């Protein structure tokens, strides 16, 4: 039986569309799970990679060159696999667009991560590589996409609003830049220019990944649905921007982008919604402006993402985003603060733009209003930089080491004791200055002509200058130049880092370490307290007003030098230097030689140094000069301290190589100045005594023991390649109580704590026998011969893991102050 009118003979019935079934929810569920997985993997690999770098740095180990390439490949596999499945399998166009965007972003992350094989000390080279790679990748993606026909939903019922949108993106980007301008500081001129290029290239890359074809999948319908575009498209784009941000910067500098870039996606979605706004009810349709809409959307994405990534790239040095500075309000604190502020600004911009632009009835601000907003924010950025910010450029410098070093052979032996030592120091100073003056003349003239601000050194024949990779390459080709190193310069902070103060009670008698060394017996039984000797400290500074140290300061106009900040009186923010000087000459039971005097120099600023400033202080110790004086002309070698304590080392991250300070310690040795250096806190690994000056044969290298005379696990060990056995001796270095800034005390661990005690023992020996002053070989031999056995410790607890022999763990043993002074008196 037929129902309805019969069809024409031989003709099929007309097509009747079936009612749509319920949409399949599983592709959306899969996309949500893949997005959560992508976020977890990205955050874990980026944070884990940075922490691995920091742990290696803290233990004094070399960077693992393959770490970041492996992490990048891991991210590509773990993130790219589900993204590829989303791009291929579901029928939903939006889900497939999600998969394509995440897959492309994962591949970009893998590619950008490879660039982290460039050492952080060569930041300009990294930024140049980042800019070039991001720009080239964007070109390849645009060429391969061929999406000129996918211009989005602009057309009947839609009016393309293009004019003010890029300006609104610029305004949002400048707002995101404000926390970095306020709390950060720029590097050098070239470094800043390359950061701008890199940020621009990343913006272009983001505009290519998140183009009109991507956004149109979330704006389906006639007219488009802004809420879906902002909420769903913003979430998907946020994951893609997370992947892009994870590759935008050296290890550490990319971490802020993980917070600030994802919320930017919602502001971008609102801008695209404004571009594709439905026409008002009853309004005539405007002509199709799809091409203008695409260009406006790309420009908006490029500006907003580029300015968002510029902050951490330009205003934070990745070398300073380090756990070594995490204990104070230093760069890691301010980077975290800027990232948190950036997250808040990004969230406010996203909410504001969504409310302002994404509602169907909303009116887009006209071009003049958008331009005015952008100009106001640009002026605000300038005012903040010049006001509460840290204006000017603070790039790294270069240390140019010359081939010719002074000939210090054939020095007159002179009379024994202080007079002979002073005569040798004067002759060493004369030869060093003469060699540097003669050999640096042409180079200094050329560097001055090029306005590279040269600073000359003589202790190592070297010149420190401004300049980046191009200047470095030019200098390295000069015939008189041996090599060119990077000399670290810290960027300023928006507020002082704060002073480290102690909380331990003031000692009531000789501390345990003083008793273990036998120094208290030297005072009471031998009547020797270090009188007449001067110990020089190169460290974070000294609190000259501390009650245990105030009376021991030598005074005069040549006993304090601060090449970092130019302070004129002894001061110390970090506390490390005050603690070490207290262990050497402090009174009240903390110092080994309480009646010796001290002079000081600041070679560490906020726990980081540079080859240039290490040399500044070592030169000052050879020939002190008055404040504002010229080290070449005003040096006073007769005022040099007899003993130097050096609880620092210069690792590659600060610009040093193994041999850069070798001429300096050789010159001090030739001048009869006894140099004591910390072995380092990178044990229990073997061959971990590697940062200058600890490996050098002309310094006495000190490891640490605890109260049971066991070698501390952290104490660095030998062997030293091609050199003598190290460490030379040991001293107490676990729970050592000494002075801290502000009049307090603290118990600290480290070979840094052990080293000044040995310097104090040398001061006792030379005070007991002034004829021994300057006789370095005999003094070292006495210290070794009179040392007492110490119990070695091993990395695995197995004595077979003895670093080639127990001597590479314990040296000659723990210093015995009483026995050493008795031997010195004979």
List the helices and strands and how they pair.
Elements: H1 26-58, H2 67-88, H3 93-113, H4 123-145, E1 158-160, H5 165-183, E2 185-186, H6 189-209, H7 212-216, H8 226-246, H9 255-275, E3 276-278, H10 290-315, H11 331-357, H12 367-386, E4 390-393, E5 397-402, H13 418-449, E6 455-457, E7 462-466, H14 469-476, E8 481-487, H15 512-517, H16 519-526, E9 534-539, E10 560-561, H17 576-585, E11 597-602, H18 611-622, E12 643-646, H19 662-670, E13 674-678, E14 700-705, E15 729-732, E16 736-740, E17 744-748, H20 751-768, H21 776-786, H22 807-810, H23 817-825
Parallel strand pairs: 2-4, 9-11, 9-12, 10-11, 12-13, 13-14, 14-15
Antiparallel strand pairs: 1-3, 5-7, 5-8, 6-7, 16-17
Helix pairs in contact: 1-2, 1-8, 2-3, 3-8, 4-6, 5-9, 5-10, 5-11, 5-12, 6-10, 8-9, 9-10, 9-11, 16-23, 17-20, 20-23, 21-23
Structure description:
This protein has 826 residues and is of the alpha/beta class. It folds into three domains: 26-393, no CATH class; 397-487, no CATH class; 512-825, Peptidase S8/S53 domain (Rossmann fold, 3-Layer(aba) Sandwich). Helices cover 47% and strands 9% of the residues. It contains 23 helices and 17 strands. It has helices spanning 26-58, 67-88, 93-113, 123-145, 165-183, 189-209, 212-216, 226-246, 255-275, 290-315, 331-357, 367-386, 418-449, 469-476, 512-517, 519-526, 576-585, 611-622, 662-670, 751-768, 776-786, 807-810, 817-825; strands at 158-160, 185-186, 276-278, 390-393, 397-402, 455-457, 462-466, 481-487, 534-539, 560-561, 597-602, 643-646, 674-678, 700-705, 729-732, 736-740, 744-748. The strands form five sheets. A seven-stranded parallel beta sheet has the order 10-11-9-12-13-14-15, with helices on both faces. A four-stranded antiparallel beta sheet has the order 6-7-5-8, sandwiched between helices. Strands 1-3 form a two-stranded antiparallel sheet. The model is unreliable at 1-21, 154-158 and 279-288 (pLDDT under 50).
């Amino acid at each position: 039986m037929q129902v309805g009118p019969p069809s024409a003979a031989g003709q099929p019935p007309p097509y009747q569309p079936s009612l749509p079934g319920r949409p399949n929810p599983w592709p959306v569920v899969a996309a949500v799970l893949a997005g959560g997985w992508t976020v977890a993997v990205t955050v874990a690999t980026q944070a884990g990679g940075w922490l691995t770098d920091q742990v290696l740095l803290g233990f004094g180990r070399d960077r693992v060159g393959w770490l970041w390439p492996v992490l990048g490949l891991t991210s590509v596999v773990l993130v790219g696999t589900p993204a590829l499945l989303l791009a291929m399998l579901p029928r939903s166009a939006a889900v497939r667009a999600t998969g394509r965007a995440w897959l492309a972003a994962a591949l970009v992350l893998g590619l950008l991560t490879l660039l982290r094989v460039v050492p952080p000390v060569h930041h300009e080279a990294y930024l140049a590589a980042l800019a070039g790679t991001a720009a080239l990748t964007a070109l390849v993606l645009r060429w391969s996409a061929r999406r000129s026909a996918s211009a989005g939903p602009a057309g009947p019922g839609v009016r393309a609003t293009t004019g003010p949108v890029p300006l609104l993106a610029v305004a949002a980007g400048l707002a995101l830049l404000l926390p970095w301008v306020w709390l950060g500081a720029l590097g050098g001129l070239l470094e800043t220019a390359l950061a701008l290029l890199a940020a621009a290239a990343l913006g272009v890359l983001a505009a290519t990944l998140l183009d009109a074809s991507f956004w149109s999948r979330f704006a389906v319908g006639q007219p488009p649905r802004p809420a879906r575009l902002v909420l769903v498209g913003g979430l998907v784009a946020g994951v893609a921007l997370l992947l892009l941000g994870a590759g935008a910067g050296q290890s550490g500098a990319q971490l802020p982008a993980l917070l600030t870039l994802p919320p930017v996606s919602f502001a971008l979605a609102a801008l695209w919604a404004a571009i594709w706004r439905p026409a008002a009810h009853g309004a005539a349709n405007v002509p199709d402006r799809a091409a203008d809409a695409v260009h406006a959307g790309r420009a908006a994405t490029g500006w907003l993402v580029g300015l968002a990534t510029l902050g951490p790239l330009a205003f934070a040095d990745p070398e300073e985003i380090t756990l070594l500075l995490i204990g104070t309000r230093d760069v890691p604190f301010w980077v975290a603060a800027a990232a948190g502020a950036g997250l808040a600004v990004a969230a406010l911009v996203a909410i504001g733009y969504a409310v302002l632009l994404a509602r169907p009835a909303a009116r887009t601000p006209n071009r003049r209003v958008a331009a005015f907003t952008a100009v106001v924010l640009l002026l605000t950025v300038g005012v903040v930089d010049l006001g509460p910010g840290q204006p000017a450029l603070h790039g790294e410098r270069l240390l140019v080491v010359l081939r010719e070093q002074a000939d210090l052979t054939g020095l007159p032996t002179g009379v024994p004791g202080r007079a002979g030592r002073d005569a040798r120091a004067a002759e060493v100073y004369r030869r060093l200055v003469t060699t540097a003056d003669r050999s640096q003349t042409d180079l200094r003239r050329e560097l001055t002509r090029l306005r590279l601000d040269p600073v000359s050194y003589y202790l190592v024949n070297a010149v420190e200058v401004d300049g980046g990779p191009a200047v470095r390459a030019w200098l390295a080709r000069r015939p008189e130049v041996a090599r060119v190193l990077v000399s670290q310069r810290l960027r300023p902070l928006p507020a002082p880092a704060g002073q480290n103060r102690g909380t331990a009670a003031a000692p009531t008698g000789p501390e345990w370490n003083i008793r273990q060394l036998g120094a208290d017996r030297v005072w009471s039984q031998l009547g020797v307290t270090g009188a007449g000797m001067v110990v020089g400290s190169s460290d974070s500074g000294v609190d000259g007003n501390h009650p245990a140290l105030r009376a021991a300061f030598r005074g005069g106009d040549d006993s304090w030098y601060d090449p970092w900040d130019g302070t004129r009186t002894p001061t110390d923010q970090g506390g490390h230097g005050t603690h070490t000087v207290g262990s050497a000459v402090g009174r009240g039971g903390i110092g080994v030689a309480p009646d010796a005097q001290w002079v000081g120099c600041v070679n560490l600023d906020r726990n980081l140094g540079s080859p240039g400033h290490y040399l500044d202080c070592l030169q000052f110790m050879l020939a002190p000069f008055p404040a504002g004086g010229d080290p070449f002309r005003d040096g006073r070698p007769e005022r040099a301290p007899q003993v130097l304590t050096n609880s620092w080392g210069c690792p590659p991250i600060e610009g040093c190589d193994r041999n850069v300070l070798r001429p300096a310690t050789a010159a001090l040795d030739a001048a009869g100045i006894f140099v004591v250096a910390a072995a380092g806190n990178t044990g229990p690994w073997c061959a971990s005594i590697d940062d200058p000056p600890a490996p050098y044969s002309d310094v006495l290298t000190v490891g640490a023991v605890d109260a049971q005379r066991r070698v501390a696990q952290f104490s660095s060990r030998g062997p030293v390649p091609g050199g003598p056995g190290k460490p030379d001796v040991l001293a107490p270095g676990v729970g050592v109580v000494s002075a801290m800034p502000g009049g307090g005390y603290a118990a600290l661990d480290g070979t840094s704590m052990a080293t000044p005690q040995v310097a104090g023992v040398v001061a006792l020996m030379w005070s007991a026998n002034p004829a021994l002053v300057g006789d370095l070989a005999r003094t070292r031999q006495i210290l070794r011969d009179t040392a007492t056995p110490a119990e070695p410790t091993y990395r695995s607890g197995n004595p077979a893991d003895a670093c080639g022999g127990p001597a590479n763990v314990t040296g000659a043993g723990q210093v015995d102050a009483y026995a050493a002074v008795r031997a010195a008196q004979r």
